[in-house]
Amino acid sequence: AHALQMVVLAARAAGVAAFDGVYNRLEDDDGLARQCEEGRSYGFDGKSLIHPSQIATANRIFGPGEQEVEEAKRLIAAAGGGAERYEGRMIEAMHVEQAKAVLAKARR
């Protein structure tokens, strides 16, 4: 786990996307899903795939869900610039940029 998180940190520092390694068992979609969920929890942006049958699972898990997209839209609409209170927490420009990234990812 530590080595994987170091990959994510290095990618963030370099300003590039971090992709988790491949899952070799083509017939095990549940295993792929578990690995994708673990990778997303570590901060990976996506997963390297070795077969087209893996695309839908990876996209479903690494792509933003409806709730995440709606939250991003609300945050952007509420932001007025600078640090401010939003739904019980403080937000600033960094959070707006993260929300915009969620919307951009959802459009892909």
UniProtKB/TrEMBL annotation:
An annotated Gene Ontology molecular function: lyase activity
One Pfam family cited in the UniProt record for this chain: HpcH_HpaI
Biological-process GO terms, alphabetical: oxaloacetate metabolic process
Domain HpcH/HpaI aldolase/citrate lyase: 2-52
EC number: 4.1.3.24
SUPFAM superfamilies reported in the protein's UniProt record: Phosphoenolpyruvate/pyruvate domain (SSF51621)
Keywords, comma-separated and alphabetical: Lyase, Magnesium, Metal-binding
Protein origin, superkingdom: Bacteria
Cofactor: Mg(2+)
Cross-referenced InterPro entries: Aldolase/citrate-lyase_domain, Pyrv/PenolPyrv_kinase-like_dom, Pyrv_kinase-like_dom_sf
Annotated PANTHER family: CITRATE LYASE SUBUNIT BETA, LYASE BETA SUBUNIT, PUTATIVE (AFU_ORTHOLOGUE AFUA_4G13030)-RELATED
Protein name in the entry: Malyl-CoA lyase
UniProt organism field: uncultured Sphingomonadaceae bacterium
